[in-house]
Amino acid sequence: MFEELPSWDTERKYYPSELELFYEDEEREEIYQIGTQSTLLQALQHQRYFVKAGTPTFFVLVKYTPFSKNYFWGKKVHWLK
């Protein structure tokens, strides 16, 4: 993902090395960070991953941004290997 910079990224923040991938377990109100080398299959097979309405959902954030720091404030985040 984002091997080439997208044209809408005018601030040039979306380099692959600067991105973090996550999904949320709404039932437990916890967030899981997925390694960028993980496959989609590995993420979907995790015991706490749930597909809602037939659509897998992930979110992508730029590392160390104010938004990222605020988003995770007070939330429990797990790292998946």
Layout of helices and strands:
Blueprint: E1 19-25, E2 30-34, H1 40-44, E3 59-62, H2 66-71, E4 76-80
Parallel strand pairs: 2-4
Antiparallel strand pairs: 1-2, 1-3
Characterize this entry briefly.
This protein has 81 residues and is an alpha+beta fold. It contains two helices and four strands; from the N terminus they run E-E-H-E-H-E. It has one domain (17-80).
Describe the structure.
The protein is α+β, with helices and mostly antiparallel strands and 81 residues long. The protein has one domain. It has 2 helices and 4 strands. A 4-stranded mixed beta sheet has the order 3-1-2-4, with no helix packed on it.
- What's the helix count? 2
Q: Kindly state the mean pLDDT as a whole number? A: 86
Q: How does the helix and strand content classify structurally?
A: alpha+beta
In which range does the helix fraction lie? 10-25%
Amino- and carboxy-terminal Cα gap = 19 Å
- Overall shape: globular
Largest sheet: 4 strands, mixed
Protein name: Tetratricopeptide repeat protein 4-like
Organism: Gekko japonicus (Schlegel's Japanese gecko)
Domain Cns1/TTC4 wheel: 1-65
Keywords: Repeat, TPR repeat
List keywords for this structure.
81 residues, alpha+beta, four-stranded mixed sheet, 2 helices, 14% helix, globular, Csn1/TTC4_wheel, repeat, Tetratricopeptide repeat protein 4-like, TPR repeat
